[in-house]
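Sequence in, structure out.
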Amino acid sequence: MAETQDSLSLIAGQVRACEQCKLHATRKKAVPGDGPENAKIMFIGEGPGFHENEQGKPFVGAAGKFLDELLASIGMKRANVFITNVIKCRPPQNRDPELDELKACDGYLQRQIALINPKVIVTLGRYSMEKFFPGARISSIHGQARTIGGRLVVALFHPAAALHQPQYRALIEQDFKKLPELIAKVEAAQSAVSTPPDDEPEQLSLF
């Protein structure tokens, strides 16, 4: 367990010192991610905003407060989950991340996923969704789950969507309430049969 934590700490240190793309020149603090190495569920957002850039922690602004409320609604706390983003430094003026920036951070994200090995990955927003559901529209697949490499991935709207467009709040809350059942089903399936190999065809499941 200590070795895994050391490895996550190593990634965090490398992220904070990273100069692989131009975002390092404008960031205040990089945001590696936060949470336990044995988290069952991993949330992947898009990128740090103003408050995250100031504090070096993910989801600490208004969207983060809503995420905390969503977690509480299903009996979870932030300390139970791992939270990160597809890019680890704030783009200037919160613009969309660019392709080279996404590529520069991808290795860090893949290492985090491998080390934590969560039972469920939840993507928050379209840029993290695109990694697992390429070409999909979040308005069409939100709340849906797909088995990818033996792991369940669920696409959700970013919590910030509810702050800018209140009509999304109920959708996000409804989708969130499905997560405990998904985790329970994954755990039951894993105890009954071995994990499918990585080359197993992707399947849309549970919805």
